[in-house]
Every structure is written in structure tokens, then in C-alpha cells.
Design goal:
With about 220 residues, the chain is mainly alpha-helical. The protein contains 6 helices and 2 strands, in the order H-H-E-E-H-H-H-H.
């Protein structure tokens, strides 16, 4: 309906301009031209405003989706930390107490320095899943669906806040770095599992912690 109405208005103004020109009514012609120019200008402004509003609505949707993806990552990271602390507690009980060596303050993976967090003491007197701790490892998968959509569609330009955009980009770069580090950790974990297997240790081992610690200390 809007295009038809605009077309009708333009035709009406055109007829008036032709009529005023024939009568040489220059003031009326000038007024008609001003009306035409204002109409075009207002039309462009309205179109730009509508486009800007659509982009802002889309930006808000992308930001909400990005926030949910990152919240999902945070939940995954929390679970990964919990599992890691559990494994570190078991390793301290079996490996470090068996060797008499203190837990290191940290270690390096390539150029990355990784501090060793303090871990809770091992308290599982029933020896539940001690062997499982050495073979079960959680890693960060990360949810990149919204970010990948922004990159692949060129929608990344919709994020107007340069500081926020930089933070989003740095966050996903950090996730990639963590995932690269985890690949090395998985490799080391597999070597530990193989060595334990060669020494007669099973993930489903039913021996108590003292017996397993003695086995670690003798190998």
C-alpha cells in the first residue's frame, strides 16, 4: 500500500508542476520542488532509520545468543575444573606421596606456563573410582555456533562497541589456545594410562589406596 500511495503522490505533484509551468507560476513551481526534495529526503531518512532499527534488533539477538553460548562454556569449565581437581587429588595420593616428592608449583606445555592449583586432600576411604580418575578427562569443547555465524555471514560488523568486540574475539582466541593445550594434556594422560597398565594397574582396580600407593612407589 505504501509504494502505491507514494507513486500517486508523486504523480499528483508532477501534474501540478506541469500545470504551474504552463501558467509560468514560478513561486508555485519552487514550492512544488521544495516539497519534492523534502519528500525524497524524508523518505531516505525513514528508510535509513528502518534499516538501523533492524540492525540493532539483530545485534541484540546476536549478543543474547553469544552470552548464552559463553554461559554454556562457563558451566562446562566449572565441571572440567571439578573433574581436574578430583584427578589431581588422586594423583597426589598415589604418585607424589609414593615418590615422596612435593607437588610441583606448576609446569610448562610448550610456551605455556600452567600453575598447579592447590588440591583438596584425598578422602575417599572406600577407594571409589581411583583408577577411573587416571583415565577420565574432561576437556573444553566450547560453543562457537553464534560466533561462527557472525564470522561466516559478516555479521561481526553489527557489534558496535569496539571494546566488547575485542573482548569477544580475545575470548574465542583464548578458547582455541586452551583446546590446543588440552590436546597435549590428553596425550600425556594417555601415556600415564599406558604406563599404569604395563605396571598392572587397572582403571577398575579394587585394591585399596595404600596398596596402589605402594605399587606406584615400587615402579
Amino acid at each position: 500500500r505504501e509504494p502505491a500511495r507514494d507513486s500517486g503522490a508523486r504523480q499528483m505533484i508532477l501534474r501540478r508542476v506541469i500545470e504551474h509551468t504552463r501558467k509560468q507560476e514560478w513561486t508555485a513551481i519552487l514550492i512544488d520542488l521544495v516539497i519534492v526534495v523534502l519528500g525524497v529526503f524524508i523518505g531516505i531518512q525513514v528508510s535509513n532509520w528502518n534499516e538501523e532499527r533492524s540492525e540493532r534488533v539483530l545485534e541484540a539477538r546476536y549478543l543474547a545468543s553469544l552470552a548464552e553460548d559463553i554461559r554454556s562454556d562457563i558451566r562446562e569449565i566449572d565441571t572440567t575444573i571439578e573433574v581436574s581437581l578430583w584427578r589431581m587429588s588422586v594423583l597426589e595420593e598415589l604418585a607424589f606421596k609414593a615418590s615422596g616428592e612435593p607437588v610441583p608449583a606448576g609446569f610448562r606445555i610448550g610456551d605455556v606456563a600452567v600453575p598447579a592449583n592447590a588440591v583438596p586432600p584425598y578422602t575417599d576411604t572406600e577407594n571409589k573410582a581411583v583408577g577411573l580418575a587416571l583415565v577420565y578427562m574432561r576437556t573444553l569443547d566450547g560453543n562457537r555456533s553464534t560466533y561462527e555465524t557472525l564470522i561466516n555471514t559478516g555479521g561481526i560488523g553489527l557489534l558496535r562497541d569496539p571494546t566488547l568486540l575485542k573482548q569477544v574475539q580475545e575470548y574465542y582466541a583464548a578458547v582455541e589456545e586452551i583446546q590446543d593445550t588440552e590436546k597435549n594434556l590428553v596425550h600425556d594422560k594417555n601415556r600415564t594410562v599406558d604406563a599404569a597398565h604395563d605396571a598392572g594397574f587397572s582403571p577398575m582396580d579394587s585394591r585399596n589406596v595404600a596398596e596402589l600407593r605402594a605399587m606406584f612407589g615400587g615402579n
